[in-house]
Amino acid sequence: MVEVDKTVREVSSALHCRDLSVVFGQGRPAVDAVTWSFEAGQITSLVGPSGCGKTTLLRTIARLQRATSGTIEMVPEARPERGEIAFVFQQPTLLPWLTAFENVLLPLQLGVDGDPKLSHRQRAVNELLAMELDEDAWNRYPHALSGGMKMRVSLARALVTKPSILLLDEPFAALDEMLRLTLSDLLLRRWTERPITMVLVTHNITEAATLSHSVLVMRSGRITASIEDSLPRPRDESVRTSAAFGELYRKISAALRGEKNE
Predict the structure, then answer these.
(1) What is the pLDDT of residues 70-91, one digit of tens each?
(2) Please, is 53 exposed, middle or buried when counting C-beta atoms within 10 Å of its C-beta (0-12, 13-18, 19+)?
(3) Half-sphere exposure for 179 (CA within 13 Å, toward CB)
């Protein structure tokens, strides 16, 4: 059983976007006057067609992209340089000259605040165990890891700083369906142990329905629909094969097609 660290940043942060816009050059807005509040400690999925602004909105929240206008407020304030905001990319972006273990350890070595009761090495161990990465892979370099192993390391690296906000940009897109479900379950388990605010960009409706408290549909830079996901937790196989899950899937699909849900 992985030790749950309860002493570091127990409070997750709410996200408030107000009239947020991002415009590249002279083109139409990639994000168009988005006003939305992401509730603290909840998982929100952003779905929509390619080019609708999902990833741009996520990168702007992460401060990887400058907003053209509007504001983003985090309550309480979360700062990426202190590990309070973590970002998981579609590609794992591991440093090739570091082992899996060293990649997870790196954010702590860079001076991010941590729990004095646990050593940096123990925290890295805990996250790799939580992500169920085989211990014989911990000392491998990224080129010797499979795609699924790399993503486990990437998730462990993001979570090791105990962030208040976790942003995920299609992290499981390159994985097969079974591995996608396995990693989704691991992510949900970590959220259950320490609820934090998560925003997930995905094209996969099943993934959105499995992970989320709410699903936002984007089109042309705007949020066009919000669908509450009140399915019971844990989201095990019985939930994913239920009639309620099928109905939620239908609602999300209809919203993606621009149809109004009754």
Answers:
(1) 999 999 998 887 889 999 999 8
(2) buried
(3) 15
